[in-house]
Amino acid sequence: MRVVHVVGFGGPEMLVPAVEPDPVAGPGQVLVEVSVAGLTFVETQIRQGVGSWHRRPELPYVPGGLVGGTVRELGSRVDPSWAGRRVVARIGETGGFAELAVAEPGQLFAVPDALGLQEAVALYTDGSTAQGLVEHAGITPGDRVLIEAAAGGVGSLLIQLCRLAGAQVIAAARGSRKLDLTRTLGAHASVDYSTPDWSGQVRQITAGTGPDVVFDGVGGPIGRSAFEMTAPQGRFSIHGAASGELTRISPDEAARRDVTVISIDQLAGFRPHVPRWAEQIMAQAISGDVVPVIGQTFPLERASEAHAAIENRTALGKTLVIVR
């Protein structure tokens, strides 16, 4: 089968096309014929060898932890009803950039008939993450919500979910293309956080009080600035570190500013709720209330370009690798 190997820790050029023997479904496993593979910013850090929360895979390895496809083969002790079904499959942190992938039934999610596989993969992880963040932050009508990295996979869905909850959304992103997308998705206001006065713009939009809720997926100086402008009695929710550095807030600092900090540790408790949240977000997509933004797709043999698009911050929404 065709695969992509990461042959060394470094830049996107470390992803190279290769061929491996077809895998076989063992006892308690299924074999998925992969149509599309998702990827995340974290996976680019793993490839670089700098993912501080993830161990380095043994080289060479096949990247990709989430795929969409059709169950082609069942191992023993697997419910026969999975045969031939369209699924999203979690396969760990490796193995997705391939024509075939092995998964366990407990890691399968049946894709609704009314939804395409690309849309399902785009929604499964990012959509459930966005649902969880909104639920944990307790978004209510009238909240003024600042969303960092608002044109990304999670951010673009946060805009829409917060709008549905009745919040006023302030989208923060970099560059005119991304800001235009956030407006299309319904953001009430958009600011470019690559400009020196971006925090002043946010304060002006919020009449000087600052946002009631911040979704911090960037960290670093941007996350720090966002925390410092959060309104008293507000919520500061951390879910990522696209800058390479988490926003770190001490309990004393949070108490002094009267801000509730929801740390990145919240993500550790998301896993049991993912099927419920994925079902919710996909139902909203089918009804038209939420639109997954698939900004760019790349064929399997150009997987290095997919990684580069995420790494160099040119990607809009979700980036997918199309296998077949």
| Structural shape | globular
User: How large is the share of residues in beta strands?
Assistant: 15-25%
Structural class: alpha/beta
Low-pLDDT segments = none
Q: For the report, how would you describe the main beta sheet?
A: 7 strands, mixed
The percent of residues in helical segments reads: 25-40%
Strand elements, count:
15
Distance between the termini: 12 Å
Describe this protein's structure.
The chain is α/β, with parallel strands linked by helices and 324 residues long. 30% of the residues lie in helices and 23% in strands. It has nine helices and 15 strands. The protein has helices spanning 41-48, 117-137, 153-164, 176-184, 198-205, 220-229, 251-257, 274-287, 303-311; strands spanning 2-6, 15-19, 30-38, 66-74, 86-90, 100-103, 108-110, 144-147, 168-173, 189-192, 213-216, 235-238, 260-262, 294-299, 318-322. The strands form three sheets. Strands 3, 4, 5, 6, 7, 14 and 15 form a seven-stranded mixed β-sheet that branches. Helix 2 (117-137) crosses helix 3 (153-164) and helix 2 (117-137) crosses helix 8 (274-287). The longest helix has 21 residues, at 117-137. The chain is globular, with a radius of gyration of 20 Å. The protein starts with a strand and ends with a strand. The mean pLDDT is 95.
What key phrases describe this protein's structure?
324 residues, alpha/beta, seven-stranded mixed sheet, six-stranded parallel sheet, 9 helices, 15 strands
Write the SSE topology.
Elements: E1 2-6, E2 15-19, E3 30-38, H1 41-48, E4 66-74, E5 86-90, E6 100-103, E7 108-110, H2 117-137, E8 144-147, H3 153-164, E9 168-173, H4 176-184, E10 189-192, H5 198-205, E11 213-216, H6 220-229, E12 235-238, H7 251-257, E13 260-262, H8 274-287, E14 294-299, H9 303-311, E15 318-322
Parallel strand pairs: 8-9, 8-11, 9-10, 11-12, 12-13, 14-15
Antiparallel strand pairs: 1-2, 3-4, 3-6, 3-15, 4-5, 5-7
Helix pairs in contact: 2-3, 2-8
